[in-house]
Amino acid sequence: MLERIWSGWRSAYVAAAPVRTGEDAPGEGSVFTRLLQSGADDTETHIVHRGHRCFVVANLFPYTTGHLLVVPYREVADLDELTGEETADMWATVTDAVRVVRSVYEPDGLNVGLNLGRPAGGSVPDHLHVHVVPRWTGDSNFMSAIANTQTLPESLADTTAKLRAGWAGGSGERQ
User: Fold this and answer.
1) Which residue among the candidates 46, 67, 129, 131 is catalytic per the annotation?
2) CB 126 within 8 A of CB 30
3) C-beta of residue 58 within 8 angstroms of C-beta of residue 158
4) Which residues, at least 6 apart from 82, have a Cβ–Cβ distance to it below 8 Å?
5) Residue 54: which residues within 8 A CB-CB, separation 6 or more?
């Protein structure tokens, strides 16, 4: 028998995300574009790695500690809008991010994926990004299921520092 645990607060979070089109907000760009244009230091913005055509940032609303986002610099909404070079660099960077997360956090498994479009759960539907989420056996517990509370064992700044060090230490370098 299939059992379901409802996490209704997630739908409220997704529903609260602004819907934008180029006409609605000309020149603003996505949260990722604004992050890159902010001029703020990578430590402040939680950027873990900058590549040729994409970058890696710690998720500000992580499902678990170590949750990363791999984001192309160019703001596009769907995979078919990427150039061949962007696609190759993005997936190579996703592979590197998985390697770093495994090295730094030693999770039991990982979720890697995209939410394309608002109906799919995409909270930034105009700028695609790949989630790399470390998972541990039993990491979903009663706190998130019934108490609308998430427990994370370290600060986002600590998470970013560990992942950046893992990347710099060779865990993220392509073979």
Assistant:
1) 129
2) yes
3) no
4) 72, 74, 76, 90, 128
5) 70, 71, 72, 73, 86, 89, 90, 93
Alpha-carbon span 94 to 114, nearest angstrom: 11
Q: Please report where in the chains the tokens 């170590």 appear, as a residue.
A: 66
Task: Identify whether 129 is a catalytic site residue.
Answer: yes
14-29 pLDDT, tens digit each: 455 444 444 344 457 8
Under a CB-based contact definition with an 8 Å cutoff, are residues 167 and 47 in contact? no
119-137 pLDDT tens trace: 877 778 899 999 999 998 8
Tokens 């030693």, residue? 106
Residue pair 72/54 in contact (Cβ under 8 Å)? The answer is yes
Residues 6+ apart with CB under 8 A from 157: 43, 46
The SS3 call for residue 11 is helix
Instruction: Please state, in angstroms and as integers, the Cα–Cα distance from residue 131 to each residue in 83, 116, 160, 170, following that order.
Output: 20, 12, 15, 21
